[in-house]
Specification:
By secondary structure, the protein is of the alpha/beta class. Helices cover about 35% and strands about 20% of the residues.
Length: about 325
Amino acid sequence: MPVLTYLEAIRQGLWEEMERDERVFLLGEDIGVYGGAFKVTEGFLERFGEERVIDTPISEAAIVGAAIGAALVGLRPVAEMQFIDFISIAFDQLTNFAAKCRYRWGAGVPIVVRGPCGGGVHGGPFHSQNVEAYFFHTPGLKIVEPATPYDAKGLIKAAIRDEDPVLYFEHKYLYRRIRGEVPEGDYIVPIGKADIKRPGRDVTILTYGWMLHKSLEAAELVAQEGIEVEVVDLRTLLPLDDETILSSVAKTGRAVIVHEDTRTGGIAGELAMRINERIFEYLEAPVVRVTAPDTPIPFSPPLEEFFLPQVEEIVQAIRWVANY
């Protein structure tokens, strides 16, 4: 089975979907001639032409608005945000229009809005954010964030085939650092299904994105102390896979939630409450969060490192709940 980077897996999924369905087209800033800021769409213009790979003006509102209009007349647009931070400019169209179309008059809006999220590359407060929580509160949207090349390809294909708007967050730190086996040909990873990346009996970690890899590293470290951690990769943030999440925590009795986003109003709070409301009697310890602090992400490399959750913090949280 071929080994691809995370970025190559996204590119392969996009390419195959454009080959499979002529209604699929791409639009975004510098995605054509330049091949995208991170080169995800390099070579697409030459293969699919300028009617299906469209360079747009610098206007995220126009990109998403055009995508919504195209979807409503039967096309399958994939809109790229050069950095996912800029998706906030299209917030109204996504939350007040695309997300509510099916509820208001039964019209699905099959668009994908994808873009690089997260820190670790010293991009500063406007190019390193994790914006999932802004949209997590909006019924009608779906949110996915893969952490491995296999999931990246399978989820972009599932997102493009979905009949409703999907936000596809891809972590830029993983683009060229994470490699993995990716099947050739067609497969999808179902939206709404989490995955147990490491089985365990003592503590459950719930996480996604870059933090999956830090959590797996932390799990390896505490395994040397006899603590077996089950690491659940959420993969889809909206809707959450309650069955996998709750069954894992009920089994271990202890939960640590790890995400790169800031703490207040983050997804960890919702996860903790679902555990509290539905399986409180199974808990052996309080649910613990490991997150970034409530501050904009710094530009300075040492400050950014301090801001981002680190493996040692996850290890300490695991030890605390294991020994509670």
